[in-house]
Write a structure and sequence with these properties.
Chain lengths: 505, 158
């Protein structure tokens, strides 16, 4: 050390550096207690994003599972109506019940058999052309399936035509197989006799040498049996659309319904208007560089109270397929919270103006008193409370799966949204040298936009063909913080219940 | 580490708070230690950062040190000064420095930072850092010469 203490740095460095002071036991106790709390808090926040991603996947799996579970099972009637034009699925017997039996001695029309035999049995079902038994002829023995009923041709006339032409070898064999499959099920059955009808649809002339159906003698005149040889075959052709239009009742519901709903749901454009109360649950993270005592997430959580916020908007929906649709729209969300009373200190802001500084979860607020006395650096003032209101205009986009059960439909969906800051301002009650006053100030540090993920399950009820009402609980989770260069990063999350009306076009 | 905290705090109580807060941060961030240096050095850096964050969170009080030249001529001899100043006395002197001077003095003398780095850490200009260090040295010299550890530097608001 020199006389004028030029080496004062060394004096202090050497004197203090090796010095050891015992740490009070109270400090270690405090560290231990705080660590327990911090550990719990740390692990609660550490896997936040992982938990959110897991939640996303879980809901997607649930939505997929629900979709698979509610998907209509393959209906044999539906498949048969789609795959072949000459078959009709079963129907309750009363709708196909036969009329009064044909009287004995009626004229055997050469082309007068107008009956269609309809089977209710399982397996491939085919309309079988039949010939009306004639009293003068030998009884025709006909093999029919159990529960066979006879449908009058005029009942289905508009949709049924006949194709009387020599069948090709392949189709002939196919048709014969179909007929024989039906006729061999139950053996000989008593067939109710029908009156002749000139509205013939299917004609089998036993006298025609080309006809493949030949009468076979039977001891009982009431029984008939068709023996079919592979020569020529009359094939009834069913036009299902015409049948559906004119005689919808003869078709089973399962065959008709999907076509109807498919026409209605595929490539349907709709517009929804909704409003929703939102429950806010912000997630805060400390910025390691800027956070400190009084400016960390614990302090902010302690000071701030969140309120129910509201959102509303218009969503356009376009059906890509019967089940899947995409959405986009425009929403507006307004959220608010209050900050409890406290003391604020004046300090220069980024522009060099000295104003009272208030830290909140959204960012930093620089409060300028309205009066003539402006604060100097270090001055303090009391706040009687501050309310923060943020308004965002959102552009959501998503996809949803629609599961329809009658008038009720469920549509789980997910998507993302871009929220653009419309306004962020605070209202503070300030007790300064100017007296008590209410001041408004913008929030500094807010980003112009942030991204969010949305996931929800909606329920909708059709009021008519074009209008439906519904609700949709939705979780909106921020993917990016709403602020930057602030001690605490804030992720705005909402749990909202959207209620609205959907119009289909 | 407690000595480091005593240097940055204005009294023992604040030093204990810094130590507690710093060690909580050490345990919470232990997974971030990448074994690239000594653990002691890493812990020390965390403690110093914690102390600086406390400094930054305070409202900015601009202290001005005033010097009153000793006209009595009673300057203590070098050996006498050295024998009388123990670590505790030196710590008391450092603690009596205003916070911004204390921070600059600690960062420059004990941590080995340059003025440019100190300016960045404390959000002040490089010139202010140099000026504060000079004032802190002068004030400490004066107090050591006078053997006066009691008076507190006068604080002024700019």
């Amino acid at each position: 050390m020199s006389t004028d203490l030029h080496d004062i740095d060394d004096l202090f460095r050497d004197g203090i550096e090796e010095h050891r002071e015992p740490v009070p036991a109270l400090v270690w106790e405090g560290i231990s207690n705080d660590l327990d709390k911090k550990q719990a808090h740390y692990y609660r926040h550490k896997y936040y994003r992982t938990k959110m991603a897991a939640l996303f996947l879980l809901v997607i799996c649930l939505a997929g599972g629900t979709y698979v579970a509610f998907q209509p099972s393959a209906d044999p009637g539906e498949s048969s109506s789609k795959t072949k034009s000459n078959t009709v699925t079963g129907k309750p017997a009363r709708e196909f019940s036969s009329k009064s039996p044909q009287k004995e001695g009626d004229q055997p029309g050469s082309n007068t058999s107008k009956y269609l035999q309809q089977s209710n049995t399982e397996g491939p079902e085919a309309a079988v052309p039949a010939k009306l038994p004639d009293a003068n002829e030998a009884p025709v023995e006909q093999s029919l399936p159990a529960n066979a009923t006879i449908l009058r041709a005029k009942d289905v006339l508009p949709g049924i035509t006949t194709s009387h032409q020599p069948a090709s070898a392949g189709s002939k064999k196919k048709n014969l197989n179909k007929v024989s499959a039906n006729t061999s099920v139950a053996g000989n059955r008593n067939v109710s006799r029908k009156k002749q009808d000139n509205n013939s649809m299917v004609s089998i002339n036993p006298a025609d040498p080309n006809n493949s159906v030949k009468p076979v003698a039977s001891p009982d005149p009431g029984f008939s049996r068709l023996t079919i040889t592979p020569r020529y075959f009359t094939v009834p052709v069913f036009d299902l659309q015409a049948l559906t239009a004119t005689h919808r009742s003869i078709l089973p519901q399962s065959a008709a319904a999907p076509a109807r709903s498919g026409l209605r749901n595929t490539h349907v454009f709709s517009l929804s208007v909704f409003a929703a109360p939102n429950l806010s649950f912000d997630h805060l993270e400390d910025d390691a560089r800027l956070a400190g005592p009084g400016q960390n997430r614990q302090d902010i959580h302690r000071r701030e109270n969140e309120h129910v916020s509201f959102s509303g908007g218009v969503i356009a929906d376009y059906g890509l397929t019967e089940k899947i649709s995409i959405q986009a729209g425009l929403t507006i969300t307004s959220s608010s919270n209050t900050i409890s009373p406290g003391v604020v200190y004046a300090r220069p802001d980024n522009n060099g103006h000295t104003r009272y500084e208030l830290h909140c979860s959204s960012g930093t607020v620089y409060i300028s008193p309205k009066g003539t006395i402006q604060p100097a650096a270090g001055d303090s003032a009391k706040t009687s409370g501050t309310s923060v209101r943020l308004t965002y205009v959102g552009i959501p986009a998503g996809v949803s799966f629609r599961i329809k059960t009658g008038r009720l439909s469920f549509y789980p969906g997910l998507g993302v949204g871009l929220n653009i800051l419309a306004s962020g301002k605070t209202t503070t009650g300030l007790s300064s040298p100017n007296g008590n006053e209410i001041t408004t100030a913008p929030v500094s540090g807010l980003k112009p936009a942030y991204m969010e993920g949305q996931i929800g399950v909606g329920m909708e009820y059709d009021l008519g063909n074009r209008i439906s009402v519904g609700i949709r609980p939705t979780a909106r989770m921020a993917l990016t913080p709403i602020n930057k260069e602030t001690p605490v990063r804030s992720f705005q999350n909402f749990l909202s219940v959207q209620a609205g009306v959907r119009l289909r076009f | 580490m407690f000595t480091v905290c005593l240097r940055y705090g204005k009294d023992r109580h604040e030093a204990e708070e810094i130590l507690q807060e710093g060690f909580i941060r050490v345990f919470s961030s232990l997974h971030q230690f990448r074994n690239e240096g000594s653990l002691e050095g890493w812990i020390r850096r965390v403690i110093v950062t914690t102390a600086l964050q406390r400094f930054r969170s305070r409202p900015p009080l601009h202290a001005v040190l005033t010097f009153q030249p000793d006209e009595s001529g009673g300057v203590m001899e070098e050996e006498l000064i050295e024998s009388r100043l123990g670590a505790k006395e030196l710590l008391v002197l450092v603690q009596k420095l205003p916070s911004v001077y204390r921070a600059v003095f600690n960062l420059y003398v004990f941590e080995g930072y340059r003025h440019k780095e100190i300016a960045g850490l404390l959000n002040i200009s490089e010139g202010t850092s140099k000026s504060n260090l000079y004032d802190a040295r002068q004030w400490l010299k004066e107090k050591i010469k006078k053997g006066d550890h009691q008076p507190v530097p006068k604080k002024k608001f700019l």
